[in-house]
Amino acid sequence: MRGVTRPVTLQGTFLGAGPVNVEGGYNAGYRAGFEATSTIDRKDFNIVWNKTLDQGGTMLGDDVAITIGIEAVRVEADKAGGMPAAEKKP
Questions:
Q1: Position 45 in a domain
Q2: Which residue of 8, 17, 46, 87 pairs with 32 in a disulfide if CB–CB is 3.0 to 4.6 A?
Q3: What confidence tier does 26 reach under pLDDT thresholds 50, 70, 90?
Q4: Sheet of strand 11-22, all strands in order from the earlier edge strand to the far edge
Q5: Domains of the chain: total
């Protein structure tokens, strides 16, 4: 951000996995869900603007919460060609 690169440690959580069947009999395959979170200090990235409030204190806090949601889909390899069916070329 703003020309600054820093490593960030994410805390990961496995939310679950299993087959997904949608109403109407559609099979959406086998899926897994994950979530990753972290908190960074915005000042570490040269984001320093703030405003002092009339009652005291500041408008913005320094901590910024980051949340990433991930959904993974299992792709079965084609038994004949060894390539996932979605990637198989004609």
A1: yes
A2: 17
A3: confident
A4: 11-22, 26-41, 63-73
A5: 1
Which string of DSSP letters, residue by residue, matches the chain?
Answer: -TT-------EEEEEEEEEEEETTTEEEEEEEEEEEEEEEEGGGGT-----B-TTSSBSS-SEEEEEEEEEEE--PBPTTTSSBGGG---
- Assigned domain for 87 exists: no
Q: How far is CA 75 from CA 29, 30, 69, 71, 88, in A?
A: 8, 8, 20, 13, 12
The answer for residues whose C-beta is within 8 angstroms of residue 1's C-beta and 6 or more apart is 45, 46, 47
Point out the least confidently predicted range of 1-5, 36-40, 68-72: 1-5
